[in-house]
Specification:
The chain has four helices and two strands. The termini are far apart. A two-stranded antiparallel ribbon has the order 1-2. 59% of the residues lie in helices and 4% in strands. α2 packs antiparallel against α3. It is mainly alpha-helical.
Length: 128
């Protein structure tokens, strides 16, 4: 589907896998491709931070930032994980096509359902 989109240089194992797997199922706008690249780099960054957390000396990569205490490292991991979650939510909103058709009547082609129509249907069903 997205064979013509080249993988960004410098991605690690996890980021590269995320790039390939995401583009295998979603077609994204150019702006959302930029967000996907940042999400992939954030996933790679989380791998480095988690390796630092597991390392007894904290010395995983000489170029990686050193944390004076475990609380600083954990805070950075939480911050990066939160950023990744927000990026992935935004990317999901930017998908141009999904493989399955919308499951419910009133659903749009982008997978966003008409909430008020769903509520009205549920109310009618409950009244019957």
């Amino acid at each position: 589907m997205n064979e013509e989109i080249e993988e960004p240089a410098g991605l690690g194992e996890r980021g590269s896998r995320m790039w390939r797997d995401t583009l295998a199922i979603w077609a994204l706008t150019p702006a959302h491709l930029v967000l996907l690249e940042e999400a992939c780099r954030t996933a790679d960054r989380l791998d480095v931070l988690n390796a630092m957390l597991r390392s007894p000396t904290g010395d995983v990569n000489p170029d990686a930032p050193q944390f004076a205490d475990i609380q600083g490292l954990l805070a950075e991991i939480r911050q990066q994980a939160g950023a990744l979650k927000l990026l992935l939510a935004e990317i999901r909103q930017g998908q141009r096509s999904a493989s399955p058709a919308p499951a419910e009547p009133g659903a749009s082609s982008k997978g966003v359902t008409d909430l008020s129509a769903r509520i009205a249907r549920k109310r009618r069903q409950a009244e019957q």
